[in-house]
Amino acid sequence: MHRTPTPRFRRSQLAAAVLALTAVTAFTTGHAAPAAKYASASHALGTTTQLPRGVTPLHYALSITPDAAASTFKGAAAIKVAVDAPTSSITFNALNLAFAGAAIEGAGGSKQVMRKIDIDADKQTATVHFAQPLAKGEYLLRIDYSGKIGTQATGLFSLDYDTPQGRQRALYTQFENSDARSMLPSWDEPDYKATFALDVIVPSSQMAVGNMPVASSEDLGNGTKHVRFATTPRMSTYLLFFGLGDFERATAMSDGTEIGVITKKGALAQSRFALDESAALLREYNDYFGVRYPLPKLDNIAAPGRSQFFGAMENWGAVFTFEYGLLLDPTISTQTDKENIYTTLSHEMAHQWFGDLVTMRWWDDLWLNEGFASWMESRTTERLHPEWNTALSNVGGRESAMSQDALRTTHPVVQRIATVEQASQAFDGITYQKGEAVIRMLEAYVGADTWRTAVRNYMRKHAYGNTVSDDLWREVDAAAGKPVSAIAHDFTLQPGVPMITVSDAVCSKGSTRVTLTQTEFSKDQPDKKPLSWKVPVIASTVGNGKLAKVVLKDGKATLNVPGCGALLVNAGQSGYYRTLYAPAGTRALAGSFARLAPIDQLGLLADSQSLGMAGLQDPAGFLELVKATPLSADPQVLGRVAASLNSLYEQYAGDAARQQAFGRFAMARLAPMMAQTGWEARAGEASSVATLRGRLIAILGDMGEPGVIAEARRRYAASEQAGEQNPSAMPAPLRRTILGVVAQHADAATWEQLHAKAQQEKTPLVKNQLYDLLASTDDAALAQRALALALTDEPGVTNSPAMISRVSRTHPELAFDFALAHLEQVNARIDASSRSRYFPRLAAGSAQPDMIAKLEAYAQANLPAGARGDADSSVAGIKYRIKVRAERLPAVDAWLAKQTG
Fold first, then answer.
1. 15 pLDDT higher than 50
2. What pLDDT was estimated at residue 555?
3. 305 φ, ψ to 5°?
4. Where in the numbering of this chain does the ERAP1-like C-terminal domain appear (predicted)?
5. Using one digit for the tens of pLDDT, what is the confidence trace for 174-217?
């Protein structure tokens, strides 16, 4: 699954995490357990289940007849099951299903009709009782039932969208993590794999899509047809897919597999990039994994709308993606959109192996799916599109994870999951970005070829099965010939961020000798007893190029590094740790900053800012690095400088005089970058320059830079002259950015003009963006109007929660209070998987003390005790933000005064 990206909060960056659960409490108290205990503790209870053991599904024959207009469906399931011991009842998962009847058939033609059925809504189960006990053996369980089609992206749901011909409705499914049970009675847990034969009765004029190719289609003569899909391989319930609508499809062959893209009619041309890149990705993955993609086809399905929970889903053979993650609209799409589409494609295609072919046994090990898919998307993008230089973005992903992982509310990569709500909250930065960063570190430690050998062996050994993390570590240990699992356990079975303190370096005879000490980086527990990790460390001296490596154990190590220049620890940035230098080392690196590789410049900037804000070094040290960054630096480094200055600028929100003082410094630093980049694209410029251009315009507009605001308004006005579109004034790569600046600083008349455009727009991608713009205003009165608009039918049910979230980036208190005052209406517009995290994320950008009490009261009243992880994380983030304002910004003020004094 590709997560819906966490929005960039204008007040600061959200540090989202979930609650550390009971099974890992020892890890959050500051006492590290020996690595040997991890292996036995991580899965000591065996495979988790919420269903009684003893009955196992083998095959589902599933018939569905949807009524899209009535938002209902009828279903009939014939499930082949294995009964391990005599029983008179069978329990399975079911959610919001109405049962008309059930019967069971055994060998020799024996048959029983159900005596009764018990529904447990809290446990999301149904239990069918029979008069006579069933003996051990195989049976066919037949169930007739009906259910509802929802309007949010869970279970079987509908999405309405506008076209020039009128409003259309399409149907799709979304089952991860626990929503297959709302369309079919099932053993809806990842360890219960089975085969699926789906058939549907649908309108003759519409296209039906499943995991497998259509095996047969029969016209029933009454405006409907009976479509049967081929039987799937053995797989988990959450990977089943069904789609239906006024679609069209394009295909290409790659390595013997039919690759397809499916869109609503009229949008197929916008999927060409996705189709071409999917074919190349499949060839790459077939080679890397050493196991060929096993299904005959692989479709990518583009759907209008959006979710607050996810952006794409890896259904085996039928990947579902919202349009913004798959289609390139030439009127609005940017280079960033193209790169994001590619990473979504590569992420979901990686899941066809990591997740679909080999599946985690239970949600505790979700990172085996998501961390590896995130790592594969990065690795493959670097390999197949080196011109994008996306390796540099790995630092940003790691930083996002560390920001969350350094708060007391973090959790281990492998965490104990007990409920559906906890499983939903596990889709976070620790599972994705920390998982990816740990994999990258271990790959660098053992070598890329050794790592690939281990992955190939893991795939071959566990194909069509389920695993836990240690199944992978055994293969890595065997391929590497050394106990890599000891390092892996430290980083996946306990939370937190190691910190390597570097002593003053001593140079002698052409070599630098340094002592490294491991503690722990924490943003809100400065006095906690540090945990212990075995940390692979790579170091070099600036200008030498030769690397020195050591695994730091027991908290300390001495390292001899070739050369006598400034010492750089975590050279290449593959390590998951913070680096704290002695003052002399910091000064030496600042003096050599321009000579560092771009990825190391990014790492040093990130460490410096984070350590400064946490009070572990002078907060102004980061600003000295900003001054040392040359205009000739890589565009992604310049973009990082701009974003970091913007985050500091936003820390001052609510204090106009101090914010303006910092803004003057930041804008003066960014102005030469903007002048160098310019508003107009140059022939042959690197894609990273185009991305930097948009970023600088947005950030300078955010800071209120008069020239940028004026130019954005001028271009917007020129594009609207005499009602004629003027593409040269707002070229597609800058259209969204320019409109964003205009909308952010809009007056009432401009807001109404944008509102009229949104009402008239028929293209879902453009329409969604326009409603987002209405919610992005700095003006509190206009933001209030956007909130009110969000709860009408006008924007569409999937735009409503997105608009409220967008308001919260600028006005978190306003958005949270509004949503809380309209709790029932807002909840009705949020997919169920998001409800435990949506309200906490609205509040997360606040820096007001009273928000803490309001958020805690909301969680107490509305969330189960085990589903308050996002609420706890948001509270921790707000407290940290308040602390930064009180204790760190004065040092920044003092530094600024010296610069101007």
1. no
2. 94
3. 95, -165
4. 567-868
5. 999 999 999 999 999 999 999 999 999 999 999 999 999 999 99
Catalytic, out of 277, 339, 348, 475: 348
Is this prediction's pTM over 0.90? Answer: yes
Distance CA 484, CA 478 (A): 9
Q: Return the HEC string of 163-195.
A: ECCEEEEEEEEECCCCCHHHCCCECCCCCCCEE
Rounded to whole angstroms, the Cα distance separating 551 from 533 reads: 10
Q: Is 794 a catalytic residue?
A: no
Nearest-angstrom CA–CA distance, 37 and 31: 13
pLDDT of residue 478: 97
Instruction: For 224-244, write each residue's pLDDT tens digit.
Output: 999 999 999 999 999 999 999
* Cβ(789)–Cβ(822) below 8 Å: no
C-alpha to C-alpha distances, 416 to 46, 412, 429, 848, nearest whole angstrom: 12, 9, 16, 33
Radius of gyration (Cα) for the chain, nearest Å? 28
Tokens of 5: 């990206």
Instruction: For residue 108, give the 3-state DSSP assignment.
Output: helix
Rounded distance, CA 448 to CA 451, Å?
Answer: 5
Query: 305: which DSSP letter?
Result: S
pLDDT of residue 108: 79
Q: Which helix (H) or strand (E) holds 359?
A: strand 359-360
Query: Mean per-residue pLDDT for 510-519?
Result: 95
CA dist 376 to 246, 263, 337, 394, 664, Å?
33, 26, 19, 12, 41
The number of angstroms, rounded, from the C-alpha of 233 to the middle of its chain's C-alpha atoms is: 27
Residue 90's DSSP bridge partners are 128
Instruction: Identify residue 72 by its one-letter amino acid code.
Output: T
Nearest partner of 701 among 748, 742, 653, 645, judged by Cα: 742
Q: What is the mean pLDDT of residues 677-702?
A: 95
- Give pLDDT, residue 136: 95
* Close Cβ partners of 881 (under 8 Å, ≥ 6 residues apart): 11, 12, 651, 846, 847
Specify the length of the chain in residues: 901
Peptide bond connecting 369 to the previous residue in cis, omega within 30 degrees of 0: no
Name the 3-class secondary structure at 426. Answer: coil
Nearest to 58 by CA among 128, 141, 156, 123: 141
- Point out which residues pair with 245 in neighbouring strands: 207
Write out the H or E segment, with its range, that includes residue 332. none
Burial 602-617 (b: 16+ CB within 10 A, else e): bbbbbbbbbbbbbebb
Q: How far apart are CA 147 and CA 75, in angstroms?
A: 8
3-class state of residue 312 by DSSP: strand
DSSP string, 200-215: EEEETTSEEEESS-EE
